[in-house]
């Protein structure tokens, strides 16, 4: 296609690729977790019938790059205009000790060296599912990003580690984030479009608002994860009914933690995590991060990063009466009776 709209989008995409390459060269990290796509019964119905990992396209990155550029540009503008009260967002670099366990895991079990200063070091193009798993585990080693008042911290701590940007804010989503609304108000005032309310000139007030927003943001993240688990549970239950199988569905998973009494696993196809629990404690080796499980034809050692197969079903929680995802090990051995 060679129409004007197509050519414009292709030009924007070429610019987005350059922006992304520049960020990555500066040390930005690609640590986004996979999103889950819920299939509904129909456009008029809210009943989930299936679930899968959402496929990201190049245009997703196109939009993301220009949103990041807008956020950085606005951050610079409002910080210059309101150095004492600008609403900004930062991501402090994590202490090296946070990554020690993950680095030890990768070295012992995969022979890999983790270098979080480069997103390329976290990528394994031959095994995208494993790449996703490492990104998720690396993200959990990091500190949480936070909103802050520009006049409350030193200029040297403004930076956003994950984006490799010296300054950042949230501006592009005012319909769903209050911090973006405040950034819009400060930007409008900085270009003389509208006066700024007196409270946004007061550092103590902005500090108090940032504290509330950070707390609410954490609560929203937890609610979001709970919502995904809830709808995934409904979708899996619907899939079981459609297949007339109340025993659950079997999917491949990666082991992300091993214990004496169970395994924590990540089902990459569905983008969900879960626990496989054992009734009895098993032999656990802390050096190899593995647990030895008895089976009908001998024992099997299961370690972190191993691929296993799990049966996923939905049970009603006795306390909340809601569907809750339950997992059981199918192979290399069954966890039934363990």
From TrEMBL:
The keyword Hydrolase does not apply. Coiled coil: none annotated. It comes from the Eukaryota. One of its GO terms (biological process) is rRNA processing. Its main location: nucleus. GO terms for molecular function: 3'-5'-RNA exonuclease activity; endonuclease activity; RNA binding. It is found in: Nucleus. Residues 1-193 form the RNB domain. Keywords: Exosome, Nucleus, rRNA processing. PROSITE patterns: RIBONUCLEASE_II. InterPro entries: NA-bd_OB-fold, RNase_II/R, RNase_II/R_CS, RNR_Ribonuclease, RRP44_S1. GO terms for cellular component: cytoplasmic exosome (RNase complex); nuclear exosome (RNase complex). This is Mitotic control protein dis3.
